[in-house]
Amino acid sequence: MYRHRLATRLWHWLTAVTIFVMIGSGIGILNAHPRLYWGAYGANFDHAWLDLSSYKDWMRSGIFTIPRNYNLALSRRWHLTFALVLGFALLAFMVASLINRHFQRDLRVRAKEVAPRHLIADAAAHARFDFLNPDDPARYNTLQKLSYVGVIFLILPLMILTGLALSPGMDAAWPWLLELFGGRQSARSIHFIAASALVAFIVIHLALVILAGPIGEVRSMLTGWWRVPEDDR
User: Fold this and answer.
1) For the residues of 128-158, what is the DSSP string, one character each?
2) Which pLDDT score, from 0 to 100, does residue 207 have?
């Protein structure tokens, strides 16, 4: 069956590459000052709610950073360039998904789906590695919908807005944006938390793709066509 439309597939792979670059360059930026604060200000002698200084050598090892050597200026250039790709790609995907009704048809969460009994049953099915509904195997289950909606409408927009709040140019044009997040250091902390939540989603997503059958899942995201597993026909 035809499962993924062209707009979804293009956005998926473009965003995958973009997020990979932004995580690597983001670690490179964090290397410059691996301490996070709340409020408008924060420096070496202020209380940090999270101190990653002990991981500084690991973060500077070049295994996960872009560029591989410590270079704050280049990390910022990579990060900001791909931030534009992330923002405009997300906007284009949202418009296309409204037009082709992907959001309304596949991601709309109904009231009965968030009832405690339904969520518990869905979680139990996941624990049994039973991911598909035999009556409608192409339909997203509730946990899928909630995770996708959370990423598309919460985590990614939050990363974009907090990233904009860290820009001095945007602060001059939209001072309300920095105030919205409670100051520059709060915006930086929220940006880090949103990025960490996205990394957690990616790890879980990849694990589930492997458990569900990586060949079929990747093929469907490349071609759009998905073969229903034999046990669910």
Assistant:
1) TT----TTSTTSPPHHHHHHHHHIIIIIHHH
2) 92
